[in-house]
Task: structure prediction
Amino acid sequence: MANDGMLVAAMAPLLSSDIGILILLAIPLLSLASSLKLWDTLSLLLEFTTTSVPTIDVKLAAAESDDDGVTSKPDTSKKVQLRDPERKGFVQCYDPSTLQHLGEVPAMTKEDVDAICAKAAKAQKSWSRTTYAQRRLVMRTIQKYIVNHVEDICRVCTRDSGKPKVDALLGEVMTTCEKIRTINANGEEWLRRQYRPSGPMMMHKTAYVEYVPFGVLGVIAPWNYPFHNMLNHIISGLFSGNAVVSKCSEHTSWSSDYFGRIVKAALVECGHDPDIVQTVTGFGEAGSALVSSSYVDKIIFTGSPGVGRLVMEGCSKNLKPVILELGGKDPMVFCDDVKIKDVVPWAMRGCFQNCGQNCCGVERLFVYESIVTEFIDTVLPRVKGLRQGVPLKTCGSDGDVDCGAMVMDAQMDHIQALVDDAVSKGATLHCGGKRNDKLDGQFYVPTLLSGVTADMKISTEEVFGPIMCIVTVPNDDDEKCVEMINACSFGLGSSVYSASQKRGMKIGKQLRSGMFTVNDFGVNYLIQSLPFGGVGESGFDRFAGPEGLRACCLERSIVEDRIPGVRTTIPSPIDYPIDIRKGLPFGTSLVNLFYNESLLGKIKAIFGLIKYG
Result:
């Protein structure tokens, strides 16, 4: 989901000069001033300059604080099992890159989940009465810890999910910090009372919408970005006044304990009940228990369409609202007028960031026919040159790798089946296309396929792995390109590259997706004021932006007297018992008074009201 390392390349020219650095430092304040009213801006600046942010201390185990801190030997059988028959009631945790055993966490039962949801619901009562300033202080405390412990957080993410530390920095840490910054700068404004026009008939009334916390948000998070996927919804949930119960994936359960300790330590340091944030560990049964818990008021699910349907079915039994973010099959388009050397780096980052395990990663690369040969010749050496291995300095590795491990071993079987199907139907395999047998962990060799066509499963099914799939756009035809892209049932993100921004925009606006960028990739996720989500098999509803923050709340419509004492009365012709001889013509006169567009009709309506009133 979070694959936004591209920001670094964009910032490089500014970082090369003192003036550029000053501009970068000024951007947050300028952005703040432009998005809020002056008084709001001054109030926030005063708050941020006069309030001391607490420093929290979170004790780390050796495996969390040291690259070489795991003493267990790798399981070279490559048959690691999360369920150990001799340790029922626990989830076994492994480093996917070394297959070292990291420990175990409880596999919670329905009773366990209900108990912690009840704790969260109880704590939420007092949390909902906190001020936005108090909530911002908690967020700032968390962010201060993150900034001061970047390497520790990256190490833990790397150890649990197999990604290189740089990928953890870009996709886990940077995105989370930007989420906090955006919420602190804009969240209060986004949740402020929204006044609505009351119309001429109700001109004596004041109408508005208030955003009221749901109560307890249940979050079922995926395994690809364990830190960000957990903190992302905790930040929105807490800021909007909710408690949050987060069910982490059984494949990345080990790291959730550390991440939970960070949030709870910040809450305690700021004087709040840490029970408003809870972590559920376990298998599918624990997730089902969270969905069905009577203490949970809304579910936010990120994962596969198949499991998403089960979650939605579970929510339907109690008419519980749900947000579904179900992954994608994102296209990247290279028109015939692009410069190959400029776009190849974006193709590499889009396809191989986090070993391709991104819901908004590039899974379909549409390259126009006249440049496809040159593109393949240019990109192939770079794909072959990707260094793959253990991303930490342990087990004989120096940690200098570009591409890490796959979190799930079973995912590699799925990828292999898709690659084999494509090759059998005529796709060209230029490199990769198999597990990396030279390494002991769960590694799939970075792969380049070209000649991918619509009849191949890999063109429509989510891959979620290090595969670059090149689809040739015949005759450099823009309309054909749009048609080919929209034939897919997924619709999360998309990106179009062209020397003509107008052309790129024209193509992009025709794509069936929740998000698209022109001549860029992934940056919309780093602009946290934008909503995130898709259509079709990619799910529905949104998180991030004002839409995502408000999705954590009940939208309550409120009407009150504009002037105390001036109230609505029921005219006698339509009061019970109704005189049908007067009631109907009186009501008809009302309709004509307010909705007849002719002046004569309105004048007649006034006389009708006098006559029958």
About this structure: The two ends are 63 Å apart (CA to CA). The first strand starts at residue 90 and ends at 94. Residues 1-14 have pLDDT under 50 and may be disordered. The chain is about 45% helix and 15% strand.
